[in-house]
Amino acid sequence: MANITPISTESCKIGFIGAGKMAESIARGVINSGVLPASNVRTAHLGLRRTVFESFGTKVFDQNSQVVQDSDVVIFSVKPQVVKDVVLQLRPLLSEKQLLVSVVAGVKLKDLQEWAGHSRFIRVMPNTPAAVGVAASGMPFCLFLLSPYSARVYIRDDSFLKKVLYTVITLGDAATKEDGELISKIFGAIGKVWTAQEKLFDAITGLSASGPAYIFLAIEALADGGVAAGLPRELSLGLASQMVLGAASMAVSTGKHPGQLKDDVASPGGTTIAGIHELEKAGFRGILMNAVVAAAKRGQELSKN
Ligand SMILES: NC(=O)C1=CN([C@@H]2O[C@H](COP(=O)(O)OP(=O)(O)OC[C@H]3O[C@@H](n4cnc5c(N)ncnc54)[C@H](O)[C@@H]3O)[C@@H](O)[C@H]2O)C=CC1
Ligand SMILES: O=C(O)[C@@H]1CCC=N1
Known about the structure:
Blueprint: E1 14-17, H1 21-33, E2 41-44, H2 49-55, E3 59-61, H3 64-69, E4 73-76, H4 80-90, E5 99-102, H5 109-116, E6 121-123, E7 135-140, E8 152-153, H6 158-164, E9 170-171, H7 177-188, E10 191-196, H8 201-209, H9 211-228, H10 233-254, H11 258-265, H12 271-281, H13 284-302
Parallel strand pairs: 1-2, 1-4, 2-3, 4-5, 5-6, 7-10
Antiparallel strand pairs: 8-9
The structure holds 1,4-dihydronicotinamide adenine dinucleotide (NAI) and (2S)-3,4-dihydro-2H-pyrrole-2-carboxylic acid.
1,4-dihydronicotinamide adenine dinucleotide binds near residues 78 and 128.
């Protein structure tokens, strides 16, 4: 607990360990939203990804160690299978002056903290729509979860306690309320942030982190359907994408139950109910439910690797 200094949102430097697709989505989103200038975002890579990150102004080093040394917030965005080795390698350079963040699917905070050697750590589960400012990020009360090192109840700020009273209110040694607010602000600039207990994280991953891929698949398939029904490909893809955007916006902005919104579209004896009948015959809802459950289960498996 020696070096817990607050990190300023305005001047904070964030560094990605792992210059992949998720890091790119977050970095692009953060820079485009204006929450941080590109000069405050850094990563390391020697290959092709270097050019991608440089193209939107990010500083790209050769080594992960340089990223750590030049960042206030270090975001681990490598694959679950390598994160342990990567954190252990960097451990000598990690200090409690830095806030550590993981977007890695499946890997638990207690393991991350143990590998890093300190627990000023926050776990976040974003999704790639971060790049266009409409991410859904689950941020657990993991900063309030029990640390294997020195668990304690957080009672520095009454209003904060009231807010989290109905959930788990223990936290890792070192992540502070201000750290949580900083990460909420950064991820809030690229989409909507929810807080949830860490035990819900695999389910969150199976739904909102993997979910964009299900919908991209659906958009592609819907566009194929349009082509099969005679539409030109470009028109069909445009219609399918915009329709999904419109449907999601309507579900969010009206707050109506999706079943009601569905009923509003389906006229008696009309076209929509004919389409829905086909979807139901093929088990459409069950298939989507199974996809989320299978992805959540895979997240659980990854935590055991
Ligand atoms: N892609 C997505 O939609 C989401 C991904 N995530 C999580 O984000 C993490 C990254 O996923 P993606 O960006 O999709 O994967 P990716 O494969 O695009 O990116 C991983 C990057 O890490 C780099 N890398 C590998 N070993 C490294 C090392 N030792 N040091 C530095 N960099 C190294 C790779 O070269 C690659 O560029 C994963 O843990 C995943 O679970 C979480 C939510 C959504
Ligand atoms: O497929 C994956 O493992 C990552 C995690 C969630 C989305 N993409």
